[in-house]
Amino acid sequence: MDEWKVLLVDDEEDIHALTSIILKDIKFKNKRIKLLSAYSAKQAKELLIKEKDVSLSIIDIVMENENSGLELVKFIRETLNNQIMRIVIRTGQPGYAPPRDIILKYNINDYREKSELSSNGLFTMVIARLREYSEIKKLYSQKNLLEKFDTIDSSKIVSINDLKRILEDTLNTSVVITKAETDKDIKNKIYWKDNNKILFKINKRSYTINFSNNMDNRDLFTIAFEKLILDLENNILYKERINSLYQLIYILSEITETRSLETGEHVKRVSTITKLISEKIFDNKEHIETVSLASMLHDIGKIAIPDKILNKPNKLSDEEWKIMKTHTEIGYKILNSVENSLFKIAANIALYHHENWDGSGYPKGLKNSEIPIEAQIVSIADVYDALSNDRIYRKAWPKEKVFKYIKENSGKKFNPKLVKIFFDLSDKIKEL
Q1: Does the domain at residues 260-430 carry the CATH identifier 1.20.1250.20?
Q2: Whole-number average pLDDT of the chain
Q3: Residue 23 and residue 46: Cα distance in Å, rounded?
Q4: Residue 316 carries which DSSP code?
Q5: Ranges for the Response regulatory domain (predicted)?
Q6: What is the C-alpha to C-alpha distance for residues 369 and 178, in angstroms, rounded to an integer?
Q7: Pairing of strands 54-59, 86-91
Q8: Mean pLDDT computed over 424-431
Q9: Which residue blocks in 260-299 are alpha helix, DSSP H?
Q10: Which member of 15, 152, 200, 226 lies 3.0 to 4.6 Å from 10 by CB, making a disulfide possible if both were Cys?
Q11: Residue spans per domain, the chain
């Protein structure tokens, strides 16, 4: 805004002419005043709907009718919901509208008689109201900026492109982020080159941000932006740790799968299905990611099962089946020895993913909600993928047969709620 918009609402032509002359050469904060004229409340309403950022309205009370000016005040404050604009009542009939009554009843900022607004009086009143408007607008701007930054989901900022998108959405302005040629000027994490350019560092790398508009509330923005940078750094580190952990878990799972003449694609698919179902069960994104990763270790205990049992192409004997079932408890012992929340969840999944909803599973014979929900989810994902792909002891089942099996075992082998979710996701699952 390169000028102050002042609206004069009065049905006397002379008042407009005189006010225009007095305000013509007034400057405040190096900006001139633009006088907008309306000769009735109706005309003022139409003008206010079109004009934005009117700083001050000087309003006569009696125009089309005895209360036109006061009705206009209510229109500004209530209909337009404009609480920032400064409003001054200027009347030639103070007896008709007693100032104490008007000040108490209406949300105005000043009440003046036309006779008292000489050149100096008008100058003083206008500058005082513009100063108020300037400070209040600044406070509102700061409040809006804080509210916008408060709604940002910082967990979604995992790259410089995410940071760019968030800033553009939040500030409603174009943003260009490039690698900085030098970082010698960056004393802290953020350094302002000018009102629309910042230098900043993330993980020892320097960047430049250019905003299409000059930035207001620089100090407040700096505080909010520093938090975004810190969140981005933490998210990058978290993502790197997750990727490293994923690689480690995949290698462990691959070793187990290779021993049973299968591929690591099984654990990848189980992990993906587990994540799809978990997203319908849990609200915490980090927990969803953790369960998805932990599911890849569900059969880690098979690493201790002899090859002659693990890779037997025929039906297992009772004794062999008894040994095979120990992979759940072996997996639990391996994983539970690691002091890490992910491995604790993985340990429970390894131990309980062969428990059945009706209590007919192993190793504990748990049923219903006694079975950890994470293990219930992995159970249905594991069974679906195992039946859908070739194993050494049988060929893959047709997809229709697999879905029929899962439906028939709802309430028996599987939690009915999870079966419903599984079928709701069937299109996505079939694509794997």
Answers
A1: no
A2: 89
A3: 23
A4: P
A5: 5-129
A6: 53
A7: parallel
A8: 93
A9: 265-281, 285-294
A10: 15
A11: 3-148, 154-232, 260-430
